[in-house]
Design brief:
With 178 residues, the protein is mostly helical. It has a domain of 123 residues. 80% of the residues lie in helices and 0% in strands. The chain has six helices and no strands. Helix 3 runs antiparallel to helix 4. The chain starts with a helix and ends with a helix. Keywords: Membrane, Transmembrane, Transmembrane helix. It holds the Pfam family DUF7935.
C-alpha cells in the first residue's frame, strides 16, 4: 500500500507540472507564430514601399512609349520632308521597333494582359504604316509626305487610334496600384 500512496503522491505533483509545461509550450508557440506573421507583414510592407515607385516608373515609361508610337505623334516627331516613301517607311518602322526594344524590360512590372495590349498596339501601328505604304500608288517613287498623309488618313478613317486601347488598359492598371 505504501507504493500506491507514493505513486499517487507522485502523480499529484507530475500532472499539474505537465499541465503547466504544456500550457507554457502552447503559449510560447503561439507567440512565435504571431511574431513570424508580424515580421512577414512588415517585410511585405517594406518591399511594397520599394517596389511601388519602380512599378509606377515602368507604367510611366510604357505610357510614354505608347504616346511616342501614336501615329500622329510619330509623324510629327519624324519629319518626312525630303525623304522618299521607302526611306520614311523604313525610318518609321525602325523607330517603333527601337522604342519597343528600349522598353522591353518594363513587362516585368506589368500584368501579362497589359503587356499583351502594349504588344498589340505596337503591331497595330506597324500594320497601319505597312498598309499605308503598300497602298500608295508606286510606293518606290512616292515621297515621304505622301506616306505620312496616307497614315493620317487611315487614323481618321478608322476613328480610333491604334494605341488607345493599350493606353486605357495601362492607365487603369496603374491606378489599381493605389
Amino acid at each position: 500500500m505504501d507504493t500506491t500512496a507514493y505513486i499517487f503522491d507522485l502523480l499529484k505533483i507530475i500532472l499539474p507540472a505537465l499541465l503547466v509545461a504544456g500550457s507554457i509550450f502552447y503559449l510560447v508557440q503561439q507567440y512565435f507564430e504571431k511574431e513570424q506573421q508580424r515580421r512577414l507583414i512588415e517585410l511585405r510592407l517594406q518591399s511594397g514601399k520599394e517596389v511601388l515607385p519602380v512599378r509606377l516608373q515602368a507604367y510611366e515609361r510604357i505610357v510614354l512609349f505608347l504616346e511616342r508610337i501614336t501615329p500622329s505623334n510619330l509623324l510629327v516627331r519624324l519629319s518626312s520632308a525630303g525623304q522618299s516613301a521607302p526611306d520614311y517607311h523604313r525610318l518609321l518602322l525602325q523607330e517603333i521597333r527601337a522604342e519597343y526594344e528600349h522598353n522591353l524590360s518594363q513587362q516585368l512590372y506589368m500584368s501579362p494582359d497589359a503587356w499583351q495590349q502594349v504588344k498589340q498596339a505596337k503591331e497595330n501601328v506597324l500594320t497601319m504604316i505597312n498598309k499605308a505604304y503598300h497602298g500608295l500608288p508606286q510606293p518606290q517613287q512616292a515621297r515621304g509626305t505622301e506616306l505620312a498623309k496616307r497614315v493620317l488618313e487611315t487614323v481618321i478613317a478608322d476613328e480610333v487610334d491604334p494605341t488607345t486601347q493599350a493606353l486605357n488598359v495601362v492607365k487603369h492598371e496603374a491606378i489599381g496600384l493605389f
